[in-house]
Amino acid sequence: MKNMKKVIVALLALTMVGSLMVGCGAKKGSDSGSEKGGKAEIRFSWWGNDDRHKATQDMIDNFEAENPDITVKGEPSGFGDLEQKITTQIAGGTEADVMTLLYDWIPKFSSDGTGFYDLSKIEDLDLSTYDPEFLKFGQSNGIQNAVPLGKNVTGIYLNKSAFDRVGAEIPTTWDEYKEAAKKFPDGTFLVVCPTPRFAATLYLNQKTGLPEFDEKGELNYSEADYLEAMTWYKDLVDAKVFCSRQDYLENVGTEPVSIAQNKKFIEGGYVGVMEWTGGIASNEATLKEAGDELIVAPLPVIDGAKGAYTIAKPTMLLGIKKSEKNPEAAGKFLNDFCNGTKANEILGVTRGIPESTDAVAAVEAKGLITGAVKAGYEFAKEAEVINETPFYENGTLTAIYSQQMENVELGQSDLKTAAKELYNQTKDEAANLAVSYKLAK
Amino acid sequence: MLKNEKAGYLYILPWLIGFIVLTAYPFINSFYISFTNYDMINESKFIGLENYVNLFKDADFIKSMGATFKYTFLTVPLQLAFALFVAFILNDKLKGINFFRTAYYVPSLLGGNVAIAILWRFMFQPDGFINRFMGIFGIHPVAWLSTPGGAMTVVVLLKVWQFGSAMLIFLAALKEVPGDYYEAADIDGASKPRQFWSITIPLITPTIFFNLTMQLVNAFQEFNGPYLVTGKGPLNSTYLASMFIYDHAFKYFHMGYASAASWVLFVIIVAVTLILFGTQKKWVYYSDGGGK
Q1: Residue of chain B with shortest Cα separation from A92
Q2: A5 to chain B nearest CA, in Å?
Q3: Which residues of B touch A90 (CB under 8 A)?
Q4: Nearest Cβ partner for B13 among A5, A16, A91
Q5: Nearest chain A residue (CA) to B252
Q6: Are A98 and A124 part of one and the same domain?
Q7: ipTM score of the complex?
Q8: Higher pLDDT among residues B135 and A11, named by residue
């Protein structure tokens, strides 16, 4: 009996230690990018909602059917804590073979261009379907680290039905927005901006004709520019054009998030939204369910503008891990994802409208670009854009705008002090980023 | 004897491994990391006390520590008083008492989960249940989520609402108070409140001390409730130290800086706990004289 006890204890201990060893050794045992019985196996990670997950899995199934020698393991996820997950994976070398990336992850993980696989070395990947200028979004140190999938442009999308109900015309200038706001009930705001940064940088893009930062990470705007933009923004908040920070805190929260599922937006309390064109499909679908119509509004231009500019950046990018063991298989999959006719018919516009000429031809032929999405696509195609650098994606910089506008609106600061803080903090954070991205001179 | 010892060690081995791998190693390692600029991507460099010096110059950190103290000193007394009050009521022999004891514990189980957080946000929105309910009594709506005071009230109430575990411990302590003392007090003509202050409270002070210590330590480390319901809150009013640490560690990947902030918070918690232990001689009555 005593011996039996000992055996059980020893077995339990071994099991425990063994399971830990298995856990610790997971990296070595990972079969990512490996060959199994003559079949290449690759992992593909992406983020999104259920619609995107389903379309992507269907595209993977189609790819596997067309390429029986390659198996693709899908790794879908939500957007929350995504950066944390990817950073941990990259630090531990366990990232997927092919992955969707955010714009600022290119300099963050690959400041010298060696953090991801050099896509120019993959024969099966055809990048001639992209505008060479557009491809630069995915380059670091001149090396093609990722393929930018589509173009995101800032625009204003309005609930036309709500305008019709109060008998207001769709405004085309900021003064007309102020006039239209008077026709809506108290507590209504014409445009909700997930962050004041969108509106303020749109103003400064038009005023200066320059992006917020240059390629070295130097700030293109002065303290006086910021003061002007914040004063303009506050004036429109007071006129009930832009949603006030107080109202945003009450009805949305503290973070910049998509407004598509927001109760106040669905009920018409927010009559429109200033957002990337990539978000139009969700906003349109929500309003459609409520029986309302979403339209892409003409973009107002500020007085004294250097051009009718709007902000542009890539929607997302696709890259391959730097230590890829099976670049041919990963490249073949990436090529199908970016250019494949059948693949893009399946993927549709679940990641916005693709930029590859082959892909866009596939979704257009399938009749998938309709309604507000089509209007948004045409708006993006014709817009005079200013390409923002990856700094634009940085959450800390965005939070500085929100914090300073909040300080002004809740009476903790005046516009002059807030503009000074915004300028100083933005400059400091940009300097930190420039060091981190190895851009500093 | 030696064989028994070996068997004992083998029995605790699974826990020991878990403790070393998941608690002791990260704990010690975080101390080292706090002296580096580790960011998970680039090679880390030893930077001495730079993180600690920068922390005390960082207005966000100072503000988050202020919010943490405010949150702790509001929630702990309120939660303990409420838990004791409910335990006192549930100590009576009422019909269906077991149901009520379970029901009052449920909020502690639900605690800071996402569904509760969303529900809580809806309740405190301008046209939410709380404002509508107050409207019945002619009270004007309160801007709960868009004013610093309102946001702090919301997260404090959420924490106070989770009084179940403290209540259960109080209930067990109340059951230990001998009934003879109350009988003697009744005979001497002591009123019920007088009995509560002069008999019940002194006899349960060890439990009050235990609950107070545990709740203080928990409140200093609170994360879920404020993170899910109010986020940073207006003017960073509900941006607690744990959220500051989380943001720097997992949003900005300033692991060294976040580790330094964790150690500052740890030292503060230890200091507050030691102060509390130092005061127990003056107000905690142990039946065995405090082990002396």
Answers
A1: B40
A2: 9
A3: 41
A4: A16
A5: A396
A6: yes
A7: 0.79
A8: B135
- A169 and A145 in a common domain: no
pLDDT at B247 over 90: yes
Asked whether residue B212 falls in the same domain as residue B232, the answer is yes
Phi–psi pair at A209, nearest 5 degrees: 75, 15
Per-residue pLDDT at A34: 64
Q: Which residues of A403-425 are buried (b: 16+ CB within 10 A; e: fewer)?
A: bbbbbbbbeebebeebbbbbbeb
User: Which residue among A6, A109, A410 places its CB closest to the CB of B7?
Assistant: A6
Q: Which residues of A touch B236 (CB under 8 A)?
A: 403
pLDDT digits (tens, 9 = 90+) for A113-144: 999 999 999 999 999 999 999 999 999 999 99
Q: Report the run of H or E that residue B276 belongs to, with start and end.
A: helix B255-283
Please tell me if residue A93 touches chain B, with a CB cutoff of 8 Å. no
**pLDDT tens-digit series, residues B134-156:** 999 999 999 999 999 999 999 99
| pLDDT tens-digit map of B10-19 | 999 999 999 9
Partners of residue A20 in chain B, C-beta under 8 Å:
17, 21
Distance CA A101, CA A299 (A): 29
Cβ–Cβ of A87/B41 closer than 8 Å? Answer: yes
B160 and B17 housed in the same domain: no
Largest separation between any pair of C-alpha atoms in chain A = 93
Nearest CA in chain B to A255: B231
H/E stretch holding A144 reads strand A143-144
Domain count of chain B? Answer: 2
**CATH at residue A50:** 3.40.190.10
Averaged over B176-199, what is the pLDDT?
A: 93
The closest alpha carbon to A46, from A88, A72, A78, belongs to: A78
Question: 3-state DSSP: chain B helix, strand, coil percent, rounded to 5?
Answer: 75, 0, 25
**pLDDT band for position B289 (cuts 50, 70, 90):** low
User: By residue range, what is the domain housing residue A58?
Assistant: 31-150+315-339
The rounded Cα A325 to chain-centroid distance in angstroms is 29
Question: How many angstroms separate the CA of residue B14 from the nearest CA in chain A?
Answer: 6
Check residue B108 and give its pLDDT. Answer: 80
Same domain, B254 and B217: yes
Averaged pLDDT, B103-108: 83
Among B157, B71, B85, CA closest to B120: B157
- Is residue A64 within 8 Å of residue A329, measured between CB atoms? no
Same domain, A218 and A319: no
Interface test with chain B among A4, A111, A250, by most B beta carbons within 10 Å: A250
pLDDT on residue A440:
66
Measured CA to CA in angstroms, residue A172 lies from A178, A213, A299, A375, A432 at distances of 11, 28, 7, 16, 39
Backbone angle region of A434, left / alpha / beta, with phi > 0 → left and psi within -120 to 50 → alpha: alpha
In chain A, which residue's Cα lies nearest the Cα of B227?
Answer: A254
